[in-house]
Amino acid sequence: MRVALAYAGVVLIWSTTPLAIQWSNSSLSFVTAISVRMVIALAVCLAILIAMRKPLVKSSKDWLAFFAGAIGLFPNMLIVYWSAQFIPSGVMAVVLGMFPFTVGTFSYFILKENVFTVGKVLALIIAIMGLTLIHIEQMEIGGHAIYGVLGMLTSAILWGFSSVCMKAVGGQVDAFRLSTGVLLVATPGFVISWFFMDGRIPEFVDTHSMLGVIYLVIAGSVLGGTLFFYVLRHCPVDTVSLITLITPVIAIVIGMMVQDESLSAMSILGCAMIVSSLAIYQNLPGFLRRRVRVKA
Fold first, then answer.
1. Average per-residue pLDDT in the chain?
2. Which long-range contacts (CB under 8 A, 24 or more apart) does 56-61 make?
3. What is the rounded CA–CA span in Å between residue 159 and residue 71?
4. Full-model pTM
5. Which of 157, 132, 147 is CA-nearest to residue 30?
6. Closest CA to 96 of 295, 216, 290, 271
7. What is the distance, to the nearest Å, from the Cα of residue 81 to the centroid of all Cα atoms in its chain?
8. Residue 100 and residue 200: Cα distance in Å, rounded?
9. Lowest-pLDDT range, 38-52, 189-203, 227-241, 274-288?
């Protein structure tokens, strides 16, 4: 039951994260927004650990898990925040849906698990076709939207690599210590990036940025990070990747309702192909057929 609740929590948080990132960027540079988020989140997590009187490191092997997880934050989240400047929050979530395919690829090379069946290869082909449609649409629109799509695709690769590495080395670290340790390793990278890429203290921060940063600190980093690592510890990595089958649809709806975002017909078709490919990849049609037979 705890795992199921944690799983549902991750789905909800990940569905709202793209929009919250765009809000936090509204009056802050992308590097300032992510750096402030990580510094505050690290301070909160360390304070909680001290209050609970829990050690951060129990074994030297814990550092392997911290560094493996840190790749999923830095430079990954820096790329996500940069990409958020160019594309709608719904498209961000959809392109990040390539995560299961990157997990499958890295699982083959790192965990020596071959998860690719004929159906999953077909799903990968459909996903690439969907991404191609989105790429074509963004290039026709002009501007820098294509950079956002490519950035989110890079994020999916880094995130998949990080998740598989954590599964390989981080099984004995409890979720909150892992979340805190990952922040401890990754946060200096954000601060250094801010110093060289921006280095300015914001003179004005609007309401959207404040709400976005606060939400992402509490829900995205402290709570969301802990829940994700908890789910990753107790579930197969391919089951964890199923989350990205659900979040794009919710993220698109939230973006349309809250941010008044709109998608062209070609982008909608591309998004639908990616979501459909995720369903095929996770063998959702076979699952539904088995359910129908059981009821019959």
1. 86
2. 56/177, 56/180, 56/181, 56/184, 57/177, 57/181, 58/173, 58/177, 59/172, 61/169, 61/172
3. 7
4. 0.85
5. 147
6. 271
7. 11
8. 38
9. 274-288
